[in-house]
């Protein structure tokens, strides 16, 4: 029998014994009977026509042939396992967290789907980057978009990060608010005024931190945390958001791409123009046609939409200001 026809199970059993140099311990690690393991090793030796181990009553040692096989078998099994992992990854849906409806991330996902017609890319809506990253680290999510600087979890080193967009921010105000009469709202207007920055949102501390720094730096007042927590408010229907605005009178800090809310308008903030930094994150080792499609979609969207062309008077939180240099 040719070596190429050897059962990978036999190779795995050989490698386990070669690593432990003890049939009993190797059998326990493999959850097989020691007698069955001995039979498999003997069968492998017959098929290869070489002796792999020297067995005595006191110890087990590798023969020179066994030492050569161990190096190659380890490489072969690693390649075999990697191949199967890649096949499983490409066959399953790619789970992409887009944070919320009408987000920059959702636009990227929608642009990527036609570029990978044979792959399934599914959206998830965690409502915050911190929550999505926790899903990524738990292997429940494959790709995350959002601001990384303010998340509360540490990121491992095996992640690929790509700056996607510096998205302008604005204020959501009631359509009869005096601020609604203006095309833009200068940041100086925030002085002494209470601004809702979604305080208390346990899913998106990175957004809450950005808003608190922005409002505080420009003389505004950060609204108290929502109770019983922003998670419930974030899931509320549009009419509840309008009711909240009327009940409090607090303009709401928001992204310009936010879904329209009846009875409200969104006006860009200027002088300076605050920005929200979107970054795409995924495991570097992940292989899936959807990953390539997402990157190709960004290759088109970023220059076409000017997503990394910040205004001259751009504002970013202190932790993100190096991204302006990265954007060129």
UniProtKB/TrEMBL annotation:
Superkingdom classification of source: Bacteria
Pfam families in the record, alphabetically?
HTH_1
Q: Which Gene3D superfamilies match?
A: Periplasmic binding protein-like II, Winged helix-like DNA-binding domain superfamily/Winged helix DNA-binding domain
Q: Which GO terms describe its cellular component?
A: protein-DNA complex
The residues the entry assigns to the signal sequence are: none
The chain positions of domain HTH lysR-type read 6-63
Q: Which UniProt keywords apply?
A: DNA-binding, Transcription, Transcription regulation
Q: Which InterPro entries match?
A: LysR_HTH_N, WH-like_DNA-bd_sf, WH_DNA-bd_sf
GO MF terms held by the record: DNA binding; DNA-binding transcription factor activity
What family does this chain come from, according to its entry? Belongs to the LysR transcriptional regulatory family.
What is the name attached to this protein's record?
LysR family transcriptional regulator
In its UniProt entry, the species of origin is given as Jiangella aurantiaca
């Amino acid at each position: 029998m040719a070596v190429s026809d050897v059962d990978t199970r036999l190779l795995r059993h050989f490698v386990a014994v070669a690593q432990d140099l003890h049939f009993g311990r190797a059998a326990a690690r493999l959850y097989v009977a020691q007698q069955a393991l001995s039979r498999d090793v003997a069968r492998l030796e017959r098929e290869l026509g070489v002796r792999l181990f020297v067995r005595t009553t006191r110890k087990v040692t590798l023969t020179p042939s066994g030492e050569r096989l161990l190096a190659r078998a380890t490489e072969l099994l690693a390649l075999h396992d990697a191949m199967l992992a890649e096949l499983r990854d490409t066959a399953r849906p790619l789970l992409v967290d887009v944070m919320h409806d009408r987000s920059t991330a959702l636009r990227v996902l929608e642009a990527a789907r036609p570029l990978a017609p044979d792959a399934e890319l599914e959206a998830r809506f965690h409502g915050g980057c911190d929550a999505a990253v926790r899903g990524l680290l738990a292997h429940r999510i494959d790709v995350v978009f959002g601001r990384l600087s303010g998340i509360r979890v540490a990121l491992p080193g095996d992640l690929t990060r790509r700056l996607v967009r510096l998205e302008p921010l604005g204020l959501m105000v009631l359509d009869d608010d005096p601020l609604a009469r203006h095309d833009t709202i200068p940041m100086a207007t925030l002085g002494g005024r209470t601004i809702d920055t979604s305080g208390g949102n346990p899913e998106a501390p990175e957004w809450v931190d950005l808003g608190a720094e922005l409002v505080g730096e420009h003389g505004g007042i950060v609204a108290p945390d929502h109770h019983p927590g922003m998670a419930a408010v974030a899931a509320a229907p549009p009419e509840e958001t309008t009711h909240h605005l009327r009940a409090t009178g607090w303009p709401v800090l928001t992204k310009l791409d936010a879904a329209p809310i009846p009875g409200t308008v969104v006006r860009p903030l200027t002088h300076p123009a605050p920005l929200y930094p979107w970054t795409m994150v995924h495991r570097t080792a992940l292989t899936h046609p959807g990953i390539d499609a997402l990157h190709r979609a960004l290759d088109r969207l970023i220059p076409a939409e000017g997503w990394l062309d910040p205004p001259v008077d751009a504002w970013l939180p202190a932790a993100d200001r190096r991204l302006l240099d990265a954007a060129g």
